[in-house]
Each structure stands twice: as C-alpha cells, then as structure tokens.
Specification:
Layout (H helix, E strand, L loop, with lengths): L10 E6 L6 E6 L2 E4 H4 L7 H6 L1 H13 L5 E2 L4 E3 L7 E5 L3 H10 L9 H18 L3 E5 L4 E2 L5 E3 L6 E2 L2 E7 L8 H4 L3 E8 L2 E2 L15 H5 L5 E2 L5 E2 L10 E6 L2 E7 L7 H11 L7 E3 L7 H4 L8 E6 L4 E8 L4
Parallel strand pairs: 6-18, 8-14, 9-20
Antiparallel strand pairs: 1-2, 1-5, 2-3, 3-4, 6-7, 10-13, 11-12, 11-18, 12-15, 16-17, 16-19, 19-20
Helix pairs in contact: 4-5
Protein name: 2-keto-4-pentenoate hydratase/2-oxohepta-3-ene-1,7-dioic acid hydratase (Catechol pathway)
Pfam family, one: FAA_hydrolase
Family: Belongs to the FAH family.
C-alpha cells in the first residue's frame, strides 16, 4: 500500500513589496503567494483568513502543494503576521525562571540557604501547576511591530528588558472551553518578544495599586511579532520547543517550553473562562529565565536581538534610543 504524500509545510504572514500595501501571504520555502490574488474571495489581511480558518484551511493546503511561480521572499518586507483585536500576556510561567526570582529576592537577612529557598520555590511551583491558574493580563495591539523592525526605546524608559515568548494565535472563537478542547481553537503559533520597562512595572506613587502593565508593556513597538504564523499541524508538540534569544550574538535565553508551569492548552482555557477569544487574538505564554534583569544587562541604543523558536522562524530587531526632549 502506497504511503500518502506528506503535506507541504507552509506558513502565513503579512508582506509588502517596495511602495506597496501589505497583503496576506502564504509562505513555502523562500516563495510567497499573495492570498489576496490566489484565493477566490480575495482576503485583504491575515485576520480575514483567520476569520474563515476552518473553511479556508483545505484551500491553503492545496495551494501550498501546487507548482509555484510566486514572489521571492527576499524581495518583500515582512510585517507582523497578524493584526489582532485582543492580546493576552502571561507572567511567571516558567518554573526555573520563577525559582530564580524567589531565590534572588529573598531577604538579605534570611536564615534560609539558597538550597532551601530553591526547594521551597520548587514546591510552590508544583502546587501552582496542580491547583492554581495562570497569571494573565491584557496588552495593546498598538504595541505590535514587525519581526525585523527597529524597536524604539522610549526616553522615559530607564530599564528596557527583553522577554521571548511562544505565542498561540486563535483560529476559531473560544468561550469557556476546557483544556482538553482548547487547542482545537488555536490556528497556529508565532514568536513574540514582549518587551518590558522594568522600572515602571510597580507603581512608585502608591504601591498598593500593584503593577502598571499599561506603561511597562505597551509602548509602540514593544511587541515584535513573527515572522510567520505556523499552523498547528506543523507544530506537533508546543510543549517541546526551544526558545533562544541572543543579544549582540551572546545567548541570553535558552530554554524549552517543557519548563512551562501552565501549557498552552491551560493558558487558552483560562483566558476563555473570562472572555471570548476571537480569531487572530494572541495568547502570549510567558518568558523563560534569562531576562536582562537576571544578567544585569538591559537594552541600550544599538543592541541587536535575535530570537528563534523551534520551527517558527527567526526575529532580528535593532534597538534605537528615542532622543530625550
């Protein structure tokens, strides 16, 4: 009996030629098909494609398998793959990262040894995984930029930091879905670098208010996204991917999604208990150990960040300091 042919691997993105408007594209190897021309109903954006994800997926598979006289990828600008309506971000979701934070922030006069602190933190993380919910907050779509665009460091930000994150992109609406059902609502995955102004996370005027995610997370361009949306069928196990971020060529983050406390399914399910996830929405799943605060080295003018996640492509962004008024 003949073995059925393997599906051709493809991804989705948003592209533009010199002087042209952005268009949704299907990527195979180093070629791009303009979906606004290739699909009969002429979608204007990747979000349009995701709005009809279940219906259009067979057409995308057929298109990917056809002989191609498409646009060369190296002649196009790569934008963020999707413009979402909602962005959900997560913190404290990598076991080793949180354990390191607990150890680093124990009181200077503590009688607890580092080994004891690590054991206590590990027990806490095990309990969180069994009994608790992910820590999720809301981001702004206006913070998203392309995977190769410059990142402007605002003049008011004194401690800009990087946070490489696996990101789930929603394909069908999800409301109050269980973890067992959650991944059926995910269209694919992409890369996000969820930058943070560390000096602004906690309010200085009234600490009782707690965290200020508006200012610390949502400056324009603080979320480089992409390069592509890779469909779930080409990401067999989102809990076994390698995240690597290099700063000026030096590896700063290098961890597996196996270290997540809450996996993608639990994260999507958790968000859906409160709100309705819509096609194109982003669920960022937290960042592993190795942020700038850990290394004592935060972002500066001229820094170059290179980010990869297994099978999802690569980002390369340069930091540009905003001139002070």
């Amino acid at each position: 009996m003949a073995t059925p042919p393997q599906p051709v691997r493809f991804a989705l993105g948003t592209f533009s030629a010199a002087g042209g408007s952005p268009f949704p594209g299907l990527v195979v190897d180093d070629r791009v098909a303009d979906l606004g021309q290739a699909l009969q109903w002429r979608p204007a954006s990747t979000l349009d494609v995701l709005e009809r994800w279940t219906e259009v997926l067979p057409s995308l598979r057929r298109l990917a398998s056809e002989a191609r006289e498409w646009l060369p990828l190296d002649g196009l600008r790569v934008h963020a793959p999707v413009a979402p309506r909602q962005v959900f971000q997560s913190g404290a979701n990598y076991r080793q990262h949180v354990i390191d934070l607990v150890v680093a922030h124990r009181p200077a006069d503590s009688a607890e040894s580092e080994e004891q602190a690590r054991a206590r933190a590990a027990e806490l993380m095990d309990r969180r995984a069994r009994e608790d919910q992910p820590y999720v907050f809301i981001g702004l779509p206006s913070a998203i930029t392309g995977p190769h665009d410059d990142v402007v460091l605002p003049s008011w930000c004194e401690q800009p930091d990087w946070e490489l994150e696996l990101t789930a992109v929603i394909g069908t609406p999800a409301h109050r879905v269980s973890p067992e059902e959650a991944l059926r609502h995910v269209a694919g995955y992409t890369i996000a670098n969820d930058l943070t102004a560390r000096d602004l996370v906690f309010r200085k005027d009234m600490r009782e208010i707690g965290t200020d995610w508006l200012r610390s997370k949502n400056a324009p361009g603080f979320t480089p996204l992409g390069p592509y949306l890779v469909p779930v069928e080409f990401v067999p196990d989102p809990s076994d991917l390698r995240l690597t971020l290099k700063l000026n060529g030096d590896t700063m983050q290098d961890e597996s999604t196996k270290d997540m406390i809450f996996d993608v399914a639990r994260m999507v399910s958790c968000v859906s208990q409160t709100t309705t996830l819509l096609p194109g929405d982003l669920v960022l799943t937290g960042s592993p150990a190795g942020n700038g605060m850990h290394h004592g080295r935060l972002l500066r003018d001229g820094d170059v960040m290179e980010s990869t996640i297994t099978g999802l492509g690569a980002q390369r962004t340069r930091c540009v300091a905003e001139e002070r008024a």
